[in-house]
Amino acid sequence: MALRARALYDFKSENPGEISLREHELLSLCSEQDIEGWLEGVNSRGDRGLFPASYVQVIRVPEAGDGGPGVPCRYANVPPGGFEPVPAAAPTPSTFQPHASGFPYVQPSPQQLYGAGGGGDYQGSDDDWDDEWDDSSTVADEPGSNPDLDGSASAGGGGGGGGGAAAGRYRLCTRSDLSLGPRSGAGGGGQVLAPQHHASMSSSSATVSRNLNRFSTFVKSGGEAFVLGEASGFVKDGDKLCVVLGPYGPEWQENPYPFQCTIDEPTKQTKFKGMKSYISYKLVPTHTHVPVHRRYKHFDWLYARLAEKFPVISVPHLPEKQATGRFEEDFISKRRKGLVWWMNHMASHPVLAQCDVFQHFLTCPSSTDEKAWKQGKRKAEKDDMVGANFFLTLSTPPAAALDLQEVESKIDGFKSFTKKMDDSALQLNHTANEFARKQVTGFKKEYQKVGQSFRGLSQAFELDQQAFSVGLNQAIAFTGDAYDAIGELFAEQPSQDLDPVMDLLALYQGHLANFPDIIHVQKGALTKVKESRRHVEEGKMEAQKADGIQDRCNTISFATLAEIHHFHQIRVRDFKSQMQHFLQQQIIFFQKVTQKLEEALHKYDSV
Fold this sequence. Notes:
Layout: E1 2-7, E2 26-29, E3 38-42, E4 48-52, E5 56-61, E6 96-98, E7 104-106, H1 110-114, E8 169-173, H2 182-185, H3 195-200, H4 202-205, H5 217-220, H6 223-227, E9 232-236, E10 241-246, E11 249-252, E12 261-271, E13 276-285, E14 292-294, H7 296-309, H8 329-348, H9 356-363, H10 370-381, E15 394-395, H11 404-461, H12 470-492, H13 498-537, H14 543-602
Parallel strand pairs: 10-15
Antiparallel strand pairs: 1-2, 1-5, 2-3, 3-4, 6-7, 8-9, 10-11, 12-13, 13-14
């Protein structure tokens, strides 16, 4: 039996090792045995690779000598002898992804993909995690509801929780009567339509296809499910994230109650009778003036929650962890400065600053009210407004339409900007680091060598023992001391000017690392719009369905443009302030150098 197959649907390859298919195209199969829902074969253009088994209908073609009655040929390029359709298994892209070599690999576990916290309660930290957090009561471990939590926190959320909507909550749903589409269910569970039947029903059954790469940011963020109309949930008034039209385009609605938060007094604490040590940071928000103490692992937990909840917002990265030397004074000081920058960006963001979990982090005194702290922690980990449901919380300007071509142009321009900024930030960071190293070691050493040489000359002149030369000898020795002091000034100066610049660059490199994923979500939404428009032009989709996809894409576009606007706003603010500080410190430094030289110069006036 020669193994062949006919394509039931169009398929566009998106990963190395895949091949594209055209509807009604004939393919040669390497084997009829599918691998995790994928078949390997050769298309009519001679390309060999993988494609979804549910996209094709397998045809058994008797070869010469097989015998059997001849039957009329149903397709022009199928030899007489008939064929036997074989239902194909539905693809399972969530458990399979083609490798560049063309061979499949097994889906990694959540722990392999996301670390120890993947798929469950986040536990990443640079020290122990089980002393303050009630890890025995995590979301994954509890089969039922948590009696400690407010009942309204999960009403209507999840798979079937809650009855009606509580006061102040709105049922939002993007579900349409779109089917899952051929990529997700074309051959699963039902009859595989013959090609002629598929063509006749295309007007009512065509859908926007799903992304086969289930590990892409567009899929993991819930953006795909939202755009395809599969998100449904209750949104409280307080959870709405408003985008407004400003003078420069979409922007986040300002925080009506702005605040700041200081981080100071890092202190070393102990527990278990001194067997365990950790550093505690004192936080004082200006809107409460009530100090709370947090450890680095608390910051780490908060960052994980925020990064999971806000797929189109750039959550600033925390200062890097360090396995050794965590209690050294220099490291503690450097980490505190990094956390100050982090907190400044968090409090400055109109959305992040008002987020419930961030406010809980800033205001709940965990040391005095452990129950309230743990309840807030569980509530954050059970948040229903994540993934596809997060996009339901976005409120965009009424009756405001976006030109998708203009949006795409702006996104592409910002993508080029971030690439250029990232390259220049790396270069500046390298240059500043190298210059600081020279100041601390090389410049200090060279200036002290000059100073030592001047003192050597002074000591030589002292052998003259002439009374009129004493003043000169002392002046030259003072000049040598001045150069020693200048060398010390060079060694101390980077902490005043270059280090703050490098701290700022490190923070922005974290932001720049976030934006490719944010842009990917928006680009994925635009792709679905283009695909739906093509279906409408071909008469395979109703215009109303395509309009719904475009409306939801507009929601993502509004949020993305608002986030880009905020990034540029804080970038101008931060770099203006930091460059002013840098130049002011440089002026102060050279004034100190000038003062030392002038003092040495005046010593010669009395010679």
